[in-house]
Amino acid sequence: MSKRKVLVTGSNATRIEVQGSGWGPTGNYLNETVVPIMALISAGYDVQLAIPNGTKPHMDKASDSAVHFGGDTLYTPAPRTSGLMIPR
User: Fold this and answer.
1) Is the confidence at residue 56, as pLDDT, over 50?
2) Per the domain annotation, does 50 fall within a domain?
3) Which residue, 1, 24, 41, 64, is the most exposed by fewest CB within 10 angstroms?
4) Is residue 27, in this structure, part of any structural domain at all?
């Protein structure tokens, strides 16, 4: 039997307006994107991440921290070759 498929939509935003400060970098928060995707994969789904404009997803650099994963001691930073680009 083939795997069931799920399409997950991510953000294509690379910057966000910060009240009183102009603009700052942003992207997909890892714990909001990766944790649900990993749960779907563990449940046997084939997952495809789609971005509205068809570009590679951008990771919010601030989310690459164990703090956002409940302080999990097994957390390791995302490899820079993960396919998620980090906005500058």
Assistant:
1) yes
2) yes
3) 1
4) yes
Say what the pLDDT of residue 86 is.
45
Instruction: Give me the phi and psi of 48, to 5 degrees please.
Output: -120, 130
Q: Are 34 and 68 a contacting pair, CB within 8 Å? A: no
The H or E element containing residue 7 is: strand 5-9
Distance CA 6, CA 45 (A): 7
Residue 52: which residues within 8 A CB-CB, separation 6 or more? 9, 11, 12
36 pLDDT higher than 50? yes
Number of domains making up the chain: 1
In a domain, 55, yes or no: yes
